[in-house]
Here is the input.
Amino acid sequence: MELRECKKCLLLQSGDEDNHKLVQQYIAKIKPEEKCDGAIYAQRLEICKNCDNLISGSCIKCGCYVEFRAAFKNKKCPDTKLKKW
Here is the structure.
């Protein structure tokens, strides 16, 4: 799959299979007590997919991969003006 800039796409949809696999490996290593539950995670990703700050799986507000940031209980949306989660 070809890597392309994709607004409102997560890593896999943007064609970045290598980083998607890497992020999934990092998520698997998060301690259970630090990880949010699956329903909250899915809700956060849906919000991110509809955000203008998402480009090719990364948040332009902080530079993170949203799939990784959204997996943590204690992380918040990095948009300081419009915190979405």
Residues 17-69 form one domain.
